[in-house]
Amino acid sequence: MGSKNVIKVALKGEAILTSPRFNKGTAFSQKERKEFGLNGRLPFEVATLDQQCDRANEQLKGRESNIRKNSFLQSLKAQNWVLYYSLLSRHLRELIPVIYTPTEAEAISNYSHLFRRSEGLYLTFPHVDTMEEDFLAQITGRDVDLVVCSDAEAILGIGDQGVGISSAKAVIYTLIGGIDPSKTLPVTLDVGTNNEELLNDPLYVGWPERRVRGKDYDEFIDKFVQLVRKHLPHSLLHFEDFGVTNANRLLARYRDTHAVFNDDVQGTGAVTLAALMAAVGVTKSTLADQRIIIYGAGTAGLGITLQLRDAMMKADSISQKEASSKFWLIDKHGLIKESLRAQDLIREGLDDFVRPDSEFPNSEGEVGLLELVKTVKPTVLIGTSTHGGAFTEEVIKAMKANCHRPIIFPLSNPSRLVEVDPKDANDWTEGMALIATGSPFPAVKNPNGKDYIIAECNNALIYPGLGLGAIVSKTRKVTDEMILAGAQRLASLSPALNDPDDALLPDFEDSPTVNLEVAIAVAEQAIEQGSATVDWSKEEVRERVKASQWYPVYDDYVYEPEGET
């Protein structure tokens, strides 16, 4: 836990009470109340942070639905950052689903109807000519370490939402990674929407035109990225919820010129890699030994594929061609195979994974999942399709028939869209499957009567640490080696390595500690490979990372007109 600091603040009276960064509410001391002109503005009793959290939690419990709880917490964040983050940290498991997946998707889908107060920076296509002016108005006088941006085309589970500030991701960076919230900047890149419901909604708060595409879109995004590079050269730029046609393309375009990270591509890939590394540790095999089917080759599926392939190449010293041959990808057009080329149905980025039709001589047209499993005899089956129940009993039993401990990761969110219920996967493999899911699921019973804890393959187990490590090391770019180092550190913390019947990933309750370790590994790798721009050694990393973290505690204030504002 962090210790108190004494800081100088230039705000007084109503100004400090309406600043979420500096407001303490009833926790202002009697001395501070006098110095900052707060006598008469607050009730008599001076409360502790513990008392404030108890009161806020009592109020929160009075909201019956998660969307109403989400709204209450948004209001609390707008009033008092320390109280907001302190409350969340005390009830982490309970409240993460309220502020993040899945409730945040519902909140974003109703963004225009729930809108009360602006948050972050809104850059809109019709105002492209004033983009730099608008950008500078937000960052001048600030020390910004993290920029989280989204064009809201592919919000998890609900698709194109046009406009919806990407603040939830920044919150997780602070809550779990310890990044100072005053140094984060959520950015909405409003380039329109193709969501007919939003276009016809008289209360829609975004730009009510169809999405900009092509050259105009690229120039708009590039202008924004160049502003980040120019004015915030040491920041981490996090891309969030970009559509399948843009996510990988933009990441590839900018990752060598700035510290850029796409959680849907790299974060999903990294946490899945960590879970797979843990599973491989249980089976006493290597990554290169695996035969992997990816069911759902969209942004997340392709991101996972690329992450796993690159890790194979580095960890097991095999060529890209050999590593690519370990994967069979299925998208909405079926198995990615050579005959799809004639129909122009192979999306950009999939070329390395196209299978020859000769692998399936008895198949005409599309190859079904069951046929693929029987032919390929995979060791790993990963689902990112949102096709609920796609991994049928026949499919799972076919996997088990050719693999003693099949690795099954139904990762689709929310839980109603999961490819197979973990209980079924466990039962159909007689307790031998190694399972990780994208949503939280209860433990299942093994034939021996022991509970098998289902690992939650949650990006938040790794991306806050990846971000913190990149920020602290002031790296020029986020490299594959840095992400691999973070995934390896997360995998090393797997409970399954001590007990093969335990969870493949640490409990989410431990995510702050886990992400600290990830950040340390990432920063160490950045220094080792020479991409860091700090002048300290690997031996100093642990203390430097810990010292950089922000904690939700009240500092002591002294009034000074030229102090912080």
From TrEMBL:
Q: Name one Pfam family in it.
A: malic
Cofactor entry: Mn(2+); Mg(2+)
| One GO BP annotation of this record | malate metabolic process
- Where is each Malic enzyme NAD-binding domain found? 265-527
Annotated Gene Ontology cellular component terms: cytosol; mitochondrion
InterPro entries hit by this protein: Aminoacid_DH-like_N_sf, Malic_enzyme_CS, Malic_N_dom, Malic_N_dom_sf, Malic_NAD-bd, Malic_OxRdtase, NAD(P)-bd_dom_sf
Q: What is this protein called?
A: Malic enzyme
- Species assigned in the record: Sistotremastrum niveocremeum HHB9708
